[in-house]
Each structure stands twice: as structure tokens, then as C-alpha cells.
Design goal:
By secondary structure, the protein is mostly helical. Helix content is 60%, strand content 5%. It has a two-stranded antiparallel sheet with strand order 1-2. Helix 7 packs antiparallel against helix 8. The longest helix is centred in the middle third of the chain and has 31 residues. It is elongated and about 70 Å long.
Length: 223
Amino acid sequence: MIANYYEQRFQRLMDAGEGLARALEGTALAYLDGKPARHGNQKVTREQRHIAFWSCSFLTDLPAPAWQSQSMMLALAQYMGQERVSNMVMLANVAAVAPDVLIRAARCSGLILTQYSPRRTELDQLAASEPSIAELCNVLEILTVAHRERQGAVAKWQNMLTELSPFEFLSYASLYAFEHLVLDGSTWLPHRPTRKRTCRWLGTQLTTSCSGNSPIARTIRPG
């Protein structure tokens, strides 16, 4: 059964004399590589692998050195990024013995994008007894607010652009490119001294006669 796959793999490596660190790394790498891909004739889903791995008993009270490998940190990042399984006992142990690993894993997990993830709730619970985790929670909250503000700004400007015709949109894009991305290094003057602006490197002109009473016309028309 998939539920026993990682337990069995870990135990086989231990029985072969690999030692705790090597056995953990071998098992974590199998998890990160998406193994097992199938169980009999059925495809094993990512969610099933999450549940199987994070339900393993050997993860409960590992010592600090066991979490220091890159593979275990990345595996923990997978835990922080999923929502199907919870192992609070394991997470509390990591927070106590290797908080630096938990912080790195949270940063790699994309947790900032999932404000209402159960993993955020778990971190909040751990913050009461672990100052470094409390600081992490504060940083996550600050970044979440900043991300939400930037999403709002993007939505605002997207809504403004929806009213533009394809011609107007392309015209604005050309004006922006000429002002900020001119290839020959010449300078775009922001004032409007004439009734037309010539884009020399495109070989085109934008005038009020070709743009009518559109927003682009109001942009190039002298004030």
C-alpha cells in the first residue's frame, strides 16, 4: 500500500546500515522525485504522496541534524505548501530543534500566497513558544499585506486598460517603449511642443488625424 511505501523504504535503508541521515535523505528524495508514481494499475496522486510521507512515524521526533540536509528542508517546504495532511507533532519538534530549517522551508513554500492555509495556523500556534517563529509569522503577515496591495494595484490598472481598443493599446505600448526603451539612446521629451510626435526608429507618426478623439489622441494632442 502507498501508506507503507515511505516507512518501508526508510526501514530498508536503516537495515542496510545506511545510518539515519542517509536513510532520511534517500526516503525524502523519493518523495521529492514523485515516487511512487503508480500503485498497481492506479496512478498515485500528489496528495496521496503527501499524506503517505507526512504520516510516517519516523518523522515525529527527529534530532536537529536530521533536518539540516537540503532534501529534508525541501521536503518540509512541500509540507508547508500543501493542505491535505497535518502533522503538528512533527512540526512542533522541528520548531524546537531546528527553527532555522522551518523558516527556510516556509520561505521556499510559497506560503505567503496562501493566507488562509492551515500551515499558517500551525505556525501561529508555534509562535507562542518560539520567538523566531513569531518573527516569521510577522514577516509573513507584512508580505501578505504588501502582496494584496500590489494585486489591487494591478487590478486597478488592468481595469483601466480594458476600455482601450487594440489600436490604442498598441499605441500606448509604442509610446512607452519610445520613452523608456529607445534603442539609440536618444531622449524622449515629456512636453508636447507640436501636434505630432515622430517615432524615428519605427518610421511612423501619431497625429490627431489618425487617432480621432480617442484617449491616444488626447495624449498626443498639445494642451
